[in-house]
Amino acid sequence: MKDIWFNLLLYKRVEYKYKFGVIRFKKNKNYSSYFSVYDESIWNNHINNFVDCYLDCYLDCYLIYEITDIYKYGVYLYIYDLFFEESKSNDDIKMDDINDVDYLDIEEDINNKYKKLWVQCENCYGLNYKKLFKSRMNICEHCDFHLKMNSSDRIDLLIDPGTWESMDEYMFSVNPIEFYSEEESYTDRLSFYQIRTGLIEAVQTGIGKLNSIPVAMGVMDFQFMGGSMGSVVGEKITRLIEYAKNKSLPLIIICASGGARMQEGSLSLMQMAKISSVLYGYQLKNNLFYISILTSPTTGGVTASFGMLGDVIIVEPNAYIAFAGKRVIEQTLKKIVPEGLQTAENLFHKGLFDLIVPRNILKEVIYELFELQGLLP
């Protein structure tokens, strides 16, 4: 029903635009002139108001009337009628004028402009309203599937407000082996992701407080080149561990990575040994506490090194954890990999992890683990 209502809403926008721009558009077939007679800001406010109206009605009805299917249908009809009321008196344009307009082009324009209002779940394909999505910690409201989070949101999730201090934030990658690709150079690719994500590299490191307990934390960001581990990522994590060792701080590393960065060759593979070596001194020689948090996806060199070396290994529900991916295994071994073999729940029963923790209680669980270790504010 939600999808029907939203599709009707979008369809009405086409009709609404036609009534103001179709005559000019028909005469010269010029897209720019067609859109120039329509104020986009009016429509943005219009659709946002009705979406908010729908959500408010839905929430109120759920709390008061316990939402029956009949009542929900009535809410949709109410919003539909309210939205279409304003255009019922503007039907003076003939259908012959509208038929000459390319519906597919206009529909594509609608999809490009307003698809950002919603976030589609990759598990159940349900639509989540974007304004409320962050407050739900990127968890699908329909099936509770944990969708990807960027590194900044994860810092906000765990670290007390105003206590985060970044480390080595201006350290950036170069092209150490002069990697060349016909499609795109490595430096251009780095620049693209730096602009797209606002980050300089695929990991953020720093210190902060978790429920007033000082911690050192590194957070990988899958949106930056798939969270791939290059020489800068390895160096930042290594420096973070050394700082935590010198200050006797507990360590948290949140992993989200496709593995070693191929554009840096063996230098990226070397980071596995470097980080593992410094972790050995941190954990065994200094008896300090390291929590590894695996999110979806965590694969390749990160899984084969510091991702699986935590004193406590926590994984998010339904996370994809592997060394080699399903396609690589099938192409190499010529065997079919069963569905769900590399999910967190299946691997948990094999003893690979200590805890499967939903995102909304993660901070409290980590705090309890710190208390068990005698780490108090």
TrEMBL record:
Gene3D superfamilies per the UniProt record, alphabetical: 2-enoyl-CoA Hydratase, Chain A, domain 1
Free-text comment on the cofactor: Binds 1 zinc ion per subunit.
Cited InterPro entries: AcCoA_carboxyl_beta (IPR034733), Acetyl_CoA_COase_Trfase_b_su (IPR000438), ClpP/crotonase-like_dom_sf (IPR029045), COA_CT_N (IPR011762)
Pathway: Lipid metabolism; malonyl-CoA biosynthesis; malonyl-CoA from acetyl-CoA: step 1/1
Keyword Amino-acid biosynthesis in record: no
Residue ranges constituting the CoA carboxyltransferase N-terminal domain according to the UniProt record: 117-377
Keyword tags: ATP-binding, Chloroplast, Fatty acid biosynthesis, Fatty acid metabolism, Lipid biosynthesis, Lipid metabolism, Metal-binding, Nucleotide-binding, Plastid, Transferase, Zinc, Zinc-finger
Entry GO terms, CC: acetyl-CoA carboxylase complex; chloroplast stroma
The UniProt record lists the keyword NAD: no
Group of enzyme by EC: transferase
Catalyzed reactions: N(6)-carboxybiotinyl-L-lysyl-[protein] + acetyl-CoA = N(6)-biotinyl-L-lysyl-[protein] + malonyl-CoA
Protein's GO biological process: fatty acid biosynthetic process; malonyl-CoA biosynthetic process
MF annotations from Gene Ontology: acetyl-CoA carboxylase activity; ATP binding; carboxyl- or carbamoyltransferase activity; zinc ion binding
Subunit structure: Acetyl-CoA carboxylase is a heterohexamer composed of biotin carboxyl carrier protein, biotin carboxylase and two subunits each of ACCase subunit alpha and ACCase plastid-coded subunit beta (accD).
Protein role: Component of the acetyl coenzyme A carboxylase (ACC) complex. Biotin carboxylase (BC) catalyzes the carboxylation of biotin on its carrier protein (BCCP) and then the CO(2) group is transferred by the transcarboxylase to acetyl-CoA to form malonyl-CoA.
PANTHER family linked to this entry: ACETYL-COENZYME A CARBOXYLASE CARBOXYL TRANSFERASE SUBUNIT BETA, CHLOROPLASTIC
Name used for this protein in its record: Acetyl-coenzyme A carboxylase carboxyl transferase subunit beta, chloroplastic
Species classification: Eukaryota, Viridiplantae, Streptophyta, Embryophyta, Tracheophyta
